[in-house]
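TL;DR need structure tokens for one chain.
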Amino acid sequence: MANQDYIAYFTMEIGLAEAMPTYAGGLGILAGDTVRSAADLGIQMLAVTLLYRKGYFRQKLDASGWQSEEDADWPVAELLQEMQPRCLIEIEGRQVQIRAWKYEVKGTGGSSVPVLFLDTDIEQNAEQDRGITHHLYGGDAHYRLCQEVVLGIGGIRMLRALGYSEIKRYHMNEGHAALLTLELAYELSKQAWDMAYEQTKHTITPELLHLVKPKCIFTTHTSVPAGHDTYPLEMAHRVITGYQDAFYEREREFCPDNMLDMTYLALDNSHYINGVAKRHGKVAQQIFSKYDIHSITNGVHLATWAAPAFAKLFDERMPGWREDNSSLRYALNLPKRDVWLAHRQTKDMLIEKVNELGGIGMEPDVFTMGFARRAAEYKRADLLFWDIDRLAEIARGKGMLQLVYAGKAHPQDTPGKEVIRRIFEVKQALKGKIKLVYLEGYSIELAKLLTSGVDLWLNTPQPPLEASGTSGMKAAVNGVPSLSILDGWWIEGCIEGVTGWAIGGDKDASMGSRDSRAEDAQALYNKLEMIILPMFCNEPDRYAEVMRHAIALNASFFNTERMLTQYITSAYFK
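>> reply
TL;DR here they are.
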């Protein structure tokens, strides 16, 4: 197989279709958008991930807002093609078979990108091994490490079984796949052993790792410690077996403090390392000061996230925008009336769905704000409710206001679940003053409705913990401006009063930044009361101008077409 120019993209999760719950949040949605753009651009890429038969989870919210979880089973055999070659890995001394299932992502020009889903639920495997690929981010640390052995080590072996013997680059989308660097070095050690019969064992030497490094790229997506996987060395010794002691001989270099740190393993063995926004690159450089950290700001796949009404408008006024995303800069010439009409169509669809799901009686003529993120404390979903009396007064004095929220908390993230519960309490406190709904089961299709149908997109993370964020980019392609903390991508995307609005100023990028909730909440209220609501209610032409600029300046740049072009020139083929 002629595959020397292939890019192998390894990711723990990937969001490809509503019917395939193989993603948890932004990391997986970005992976899906990345492979879509790779297919559009004709890049020889293939993606490797795990097959989660029981999905991430199906979210259930009770009357108090407390989250519970159910398995999200889906019809694997109906949606994916089973591949015949299998490969073997070893976990805790047991032989574990892996098979792959393929999903083809089709591009606009006829090219495609195969996505390989690795599966251990095979009759020949031990019962505990069959369940390794059942749940995304499920179980304990031991379960997660077993999954990462399957992804990193098993992923390389599956590529070889399928005939991909020479890959140009291996791109690790976060540190979950970092064990692939050991497997690549181990392959080289076996080749060296075959050429030197006097050796008695395979050894992963510094020279071999030096040969691996030029092949690997590492993208880190988080500044939050919980986003970097570490495992006790004793657990690593017990789980990662079959390497003839090669793993143990190199462990001092990537196992500081007797912990296997997947992020440092990836950092040590990659020739190109990047954060996912300019600010995040600087923050990552502070955290990992001995490494050279670059930045490539994330994007979204515009054709996926443009609502039908806007896609139709773009087709009529800017044909070819799907193949050349930068052509959306001509959105400045779109008639304001057409922008409003397209927005009203998408808003009507959202309000209809919200009323169907929430039974709350929202109205399409009322100013509507949206917030939908993973429910984690640092994302501060409840910042808007710091002073609910003032919020109610703003709604009463400057025009009616309604709020749509959504997002899942990780099953083991109790503080994240508490955030959802607090918003449910606020909902009761605001009854009769502001209509507020928290939608259950945030998904790809619900995200499409939310990011296109609201009038304003809200984002309130604690800086500098927002690595990038992409939901505001999805809103921008649909002409929805953002009101956001200056963190992640918004530092690059915000032109005050032109593409949207900032909450407060540009905070210190150091990891020791204080959580200034009261200050940020007051800045949010002031911007909403003094500028945004009056403009929306009294000066629709000015608001439409901001909507046009959101498309022309932000959507035309913050897309995965531009993002992948940067990876090509800076990392893939440099």
